[in-house]
Specification:
The chain is an alpha+beta fold and 646 residues long. Helix content is 56%, strand content 12%.
């Protein structure tokens, strides 16, 4: 089937793509080796720190981690003393071995595991220093703390944490400091980076790392952040800020007694390089501080306007007279007003008349039609125009039911509009995310099979799998109501709309609610069930959204768990129970998740999945389809995760 076959990821083909991937990997490995050599030279209080070894655990076990280990070992042997160097080399080798031992287990998914492991390795190998002086005790504590913080920072940087990325860049600059004499390369790169970034946080991190790496304490930090504090991001003062940075880098070291000609030359060259970089190679975040900042403000304003409009929509209908009273008032105005007994029934015996009518109101409204038997015997005997009164009541009742239906549709439309405004407002306020494929620990393996009703080539089941804007991966299966061309078009439109919304940055739950509102407003009386899986390729955990679909099955070893209950599809109502079911699950230990259309789910489905002894998702999907009847469109999708191979 054309739609469901699109779910199977196709590998890259062609020699050009392979050469490009190999070239990119080679460049990354060279940079990792160079970075390891530079990070090995970072000192705090004249003690070398294990930051280079920490970089090994930032990557899954593979070629990149090997390159990081080579750079760390080479850096410690070249830049540290014999005793310190050997100790740090041992730390690097043990951390590399740990990444190989624990790869594919449950522990690396814990955010605390690698930092704690790095601190433990540093503590064990540096335990011999505890028998020395207090100075050596401080050295041991610093290295243990640096091991854990370094691993956490580097892993966070590769996962897209902006502050951690600034820390990684500042650490590399601190490692460069003092490599070449007499020019201070660290000051040169630090000055260039501060002019290029023009952000107080980044400049402060650069200054702190250079200070703890052997500079004058607080001297370089103050020099780096002073221009950003005074001038900020003002474009009119682009020339004053480099001049201020140059003066600070020259004057402050003089005040702290560490002035040198090499520092002045390095600062001057760094400031000039930063100015050129800023004008020739603008960074993405600099654009966000300029023109894009105005665009971001306009988006926030638009979100505020949508929220204001949403609050203006009445949530509840204004209370009015009871439905029974409105029906009787209309009938009495038509029939009783001209009756000779009007004063007798509605004035002298008003209480008895109202009691008789109110007693019959529930039965009449529930049935939708008034009959003689609904009224008490005394009322029927005293009414001169009973037939006309009942006819008038039925006419008013028909109008009342029409008004009731109109009010329900109006209330539903208001809820839909309010929900759409809320979802769009959240989307406008959400930060812009870019594709970040770093930090991925797993890759999806998907098997999909589908057969049309009675072998028909047109299938009402459609599906697709795609990567999100972060490290999320999505698998979507939709079953159109019925079969044939109309069901195929309906499910195809649903798949395309949800895919576009999610790829645009809309949260999965909000995308489903937007689809539900669209179906309600369209009122096309055609429905589509939805199975939507969002899986985080970094930790292997995910969320399954089900809306009106057949049960799914989560298989772990020999046990199978049924997921989902019978519910209405989207487009039936809004609010309350009219929302997708959500189920948290994990696939990081080799579990399988089976999504199937209603035609593929039968009494033997769970037993078939439980009795399957293999590990192939393609084989299991084909097995489920082969045993299913063809009286309806039949589709099965099986998902599992494998460790990401570097």
């Amino acid at each position: 089937m054309k739609g469901i076959n699109q779910m199977v990821p196709k590998p890259l083909a062609g020699g050009q793509a392979l050469r490009s991937a190999r070239g990119k990997l080679l460049r990354e490995c060279v940079l990792l080796i160079a970075g390891g050599v530079l990070l090995a030279g970072i000192q705090i209080a004249d003690f070398y720190m294990p930051f280079a070894a920490c970089m090994i655990l930032a990557f899954p076990f593979g070629i990149r981690s090997v390159a990081a280990m080579i750079g760390a070992v080479a850096g410690y042997l070249l830049r540290c003393g014999s005793v310190e160097g050997i100790e740090h080399v041992a730390v690097a080798v043990l951390l590399f071995a740990a990444s190989a031992v624990f790869q594919g287990t449950q522990l690396p998914a814990k955010i605390w595991f690698w930092p704690v492991l790095a601190s433990a390795v540093c503590a064990i190998l540096g335990a011999v220093t505890l028998f020395g002086s207090g100075n050596q005790l401080a050295q041991w504590l610093l290295r243990c703390l640096a091991g854990g913080m370094g691993v956490w920072s580097f892993r966070s940087a590769l996962c897209g944490n902006r502050r951690a990325q600034f820390f990684l860049a500042a650490a590399v600059i601190a490692g460069v400091k003092g490599v070449a004499a007499p020019m201070d390369m660290g000051v040169l790169l630090g000055a260039a980076a501060c002019i290029f970034l023009q952000e107080i946080q980044a400049c402060a991190l650069i200054g702190i790392m250079m200070d703890i790496g052997g500079g004058s304490f607080y001297c370089l930090t103050a020099s780096m952040i002073l221009p950003s504090i005074l001038f900020g991001r003002s474009k009119q003062k682009d020339l004053l800020q480099p001049m201020m940075l140059l003066i600070a880098l020259c004057v402050l070291p003089l005040l702290f007694g560490s002035f040198s000609a090499g520092l002045v030359i390095s600062a001057a060259i760094g400031v000039g390089a930063g100015v050129l970089l800023r004008h020739w190679v603008p960074a993405p975040w600099l654009a966000a501080n300029g023109a894009d900042m105005g665009a971001a403000e306009r988006l926030d304003t638009a979100a505020d306007i949508l929220e204001l409009l949403r609050k203006q929509i009445p949530e509840k209908q204004i209370a009015s007279a009871s439905e029974a009273e409105s029906v009787y008032d209309g009938a009495a105005e038509q029939i009783c007003r001209c009756c000779a007994r009007f004063h007798r029934c509605w004035q002298h015996r008003a209480e008895q008349t109202l009691a008789a009518l109110n007693g019959a109101s529930k039965t009449i409204i529930d049935r939708g039609v008034a009959q003689k038997e609904d009224f008490p015997q005394t009322f029927r005997e005293n009414c001169c125009h009973l037939e006309g009164f009942i006819t008038a009541v039925n006419q008013e009742l028909e109008g009342m039911l029409f008004r009731r239906r109109y009010q329900m549709e109006l209330r539903e439309s208001r809820q839909v509009l309010s929900e759409e405004f809320r979802c769009v407002g959240e989307f406008l306020r959400s930060p812009v995310q870019t594709d970040r494929m770093t930090g991925i620990q797993f890759r999806p393996i998907i098997g999909a099979c589908s057969v049309g009703k009675n072998g028909d080539r047109i299938n009402g089941d459609k599906g697709v799998c795609f990567a999100g804007n972060n490290r999320d991966y999505y698998v979507l299966l939709c079953d159109g109501m019925g079969s044939g061309k109309e069901a195929s078009e309906c499910s195809g439109e649903t798949v395309r709309l949800l895919e576009q919304l999610i790829k645009s940055g809309v949260e999965a739950e909000n995308a489903l609610k937007i689809l539900n509102g669209l179906e309600l407003l369209r009122a096309a009386d055609r429905f589509t069930t939805i199975d939507l899986l969002r899986i985080d390729l970094c930790c292997g955990d995910g969320t399954l959204y089900k809306w009106g679909s057949a049960p799914s099955f989560w298989r772990n070893c020999d046990s199978v768990k049924k997921i989902g209950t019978a519910s209405l599809p989207p487009g039936v109502g809004v609010g309350g129970d009219h929302a997708p079911e959500q189920y948290r699950l994990s696939l990081k230990r080799g579990e399988m998740l089976v999504l199937a259309s209603d035609g593929a789910v039968g009494t033997e489905t769970e037993a078939t999945i439980c009795s399957y002894c293999g590990t192939s998702v393609h084989e299991l999907a084909a097995l489920l389809i082969s045993g299913a009847p063809t009286e309806d469109d039949v589709s099965a999708v099986v998902i599992s995760l494998k460790p990401y191979a570097s």
